[in-house]
Each structure stands twice: as structure tokens, then as C-alpha cells.
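To close the chapter, one final illustration. This time we ask the reader to focus less on the individual chains and more on the assembly as a whole: which components sit near each other, and how the overall shape emerges from the parts.
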Amino acid sequence: GIQVEQSPPDLILQEGANSTLRCNFSDSVNNLQWFHQNPWGQLINLFYIPSGTKQNGRLSATTVATERYSLLYISSSQTTDSGVYFCAVELGAAGNKLTFGGGTRVLVKP
Amino acid sequence: EAQVTQNPRYLITVTGKKLTVTCSQNMNHEYMSWYRQDPGLGLRQIYYSMNVEVTDKGDVPEGYKVSRKEKRNFPLILESPSPNQTSLYFCASSWTSSHEQYFGPGTRLTVT
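The assembled structure is written out below.
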């Protein structure tokens, strides 16, 4: 079955809007990361966050490991935020690799 | 600058012609890994290495080989590439699999 599930699959935002992306996972995690894949295909690390809350500029993330989910918040979105956002986890039962979610494709319109 | 580099970035080749994609990291990381990304299938792990001379299969190892003779390098070898290996490939490194992984820029491979 699906081990890492992201929602929504697609998101269209007007520039300046706020949004929340969600990642659900099926097991305890040793590692959880959020990535942004830009239009050129590069995977850019946003957060390493197996638990707790972190903030970096307009982005912040929260992982509630006991409830098996993580949230990525984008505030005051900009067109450069467009791309695909991936959650990736190292699940306790499947160590030594990151299992990626299906991603959330975000389009920010000017 | 701490980074993971891959070469080449783009490659078009023909079926059966052996090729190697290099991966190098300058962070003294123990763990390195290769992933491929395909539309509709997401990113999947091909091989990983916990340390020098220690490698193991990921989810989709068929048709690939790796080696880890030095800590900094982890080349991906396609002995006889086939069209179904056309994909975007990423190398990654970290202290361990449970630490933050850093990804290379990707190698876009087309096999005709």
C-alpha cells in the first residue's frame, strides 16, 4: 500500500496567497525532508524535519511524528515558489532509503 | 562549497553502449545513494552505499551496477543500457540514511 501520501496533488495560487501542503506517512520515521523541485529539475532541500517545527523565511514546516504527518506552509507565495514539492521519509520499517511521496505541483500566478 | 556533483548532466546514447554516470561529494559523507525519477512513478532508489566497499540494492537495481572504492565517489554504471532506463537520475549523500540528504543536480539520460 501507499506509504507516503501527499495532498493536494495540484495547487494553483494567486501571488501573495498562503497555502498548506500535507504529507502523511504510514510508519515511524527516522528522517523526513521537504524538497522543492524547480522547473529545471533540481531538488532543493527545504527542511530536514523528523519532528518539531522549523521556519525559513516565508516557508515553515511542522512534523507531528506521533500522528504521522507533516505540513509545509507557504506564506505570501511568489511566482518563484512554483514547482513540485516533495515530502521524503525514511520509514522505520524500510531503513536506509528515502521514500518519496507523489508530490504537490504548485503553480503561483502573478 | 559543500556539494554533490554529477556528470554528465545530459546524455543521449544508444541501446547497449556501456556508460557511467559519476557522482562525487565533498562533505565526507558516509552514505550515498542513487535514485531515478520517472513521470507517474516518482523517485525510486536504485542502489545505496553505507560506506566504502559497502553497497546494497534499492527498489529498482536491475540493469545497474555501482561501486564505492572511495568515500567521495559513487559511480552508476549501465553495462547495457535499454530504452526503459531513459530517466532523470539523482545522486545523494548524507552522514547516514537518517540524516539530511543532499542531492546532486541530476543527470537526464535518454537511451534510443
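The CA atoms of residues 4 and 101 of chain A lie 5 Å apart. DSSP finds no helices and eleven strands in chain A. With these observations in hand, you are ready for the problems at the end of the chapter.
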